[in-house]
């Protein structure tokens, strides 16, 4: 297969995005990639990430490609799950305890450190507002995190998210209670379940 064909295939597989790391793994040099990017009018979306001119850069997707440890959480996850009625005011991510998140904080992200035993619990993929699949905590994990941190959450966001989840047809109460038990907040979660369901 020709180098150009390999690059076109990578772009197609990644919704118009091309990563230097992927190209190098295919045995194509960075200098050839630079030439291809220039000849095809691609834009640099971030370090080592290029996007075709017909694709609007997706901030969340790019962030996750740059930092594979990032899982969207907090307000950002609530928005991605349609549990709140307004866009997040800042991007909130979770990373495992011990992860060096200096570069994330420099990008003005709200970073939450999560114990390694809870870090992967409830991870799923949902489409960003641009349609690219991103890693995020599932609805049940989001609700548990919300209840555990209710004192640090804006009242309107808290009430809207709880109401939307509890009235949703796709809620999974057994999973919610299972997570609540693991986090040690079963009693608090049950208060909302008993009142709103």
Task: Describe, in plain words, how this protein is organized in 3D.
With 197 residues, the chain is of the alpha+beta class. The chain folds into two domains: 53 residues; 136 residues, no CATH class. Helices cover 49% and strands 16% of the residues. The strands form three sheets. The protein has a three-stranded antiparallel beta sheet. 30% of the residues are buried.
Write the layout of secondary structure elements.
Blueprint: H1 3-13, E1 17-19, H2 20-25, H3 30-39, E2 43-46, E3 49-51, H4 59-66, E4 71-72, H5 74-80, E5 92-96, H6 102-106, E6 110-114, H7 116-119, E7 123-127, E8 133-137, H8 139-148, H9 155-167, H10 173-183, H11 186-196
Parallel strand pairs: 5-6
Antiparallel strand pairs: 1-3, 2-3, 4-5, 7-8
What's this, in brief?
With 197 residues, this protein is of the alpha+beta class. The protein contains eleven helices and eight strands. It folds into two domains: 53 residues; 136 residues, no CATH class.
As a whole number of angstroms, the C-alpha radius of gyration is 20 Å
User: Could you say which structural class the secondary elements and strand pairing correspond to?
Assistant: alpha+beta
Low-confidence stretches: none
What's the β-strand tally? Answer: 8
Helix proportion: 40-55%
Q: Summarize the biggest pleated sheet.
A: 3 strands, antiparallel
Tell me the count of domains.
2
Percentage of residues in DSSP E strands = 15-25%
Number of helices: 11
Main β-sheet, spatial strand arrangement:
1-3-2
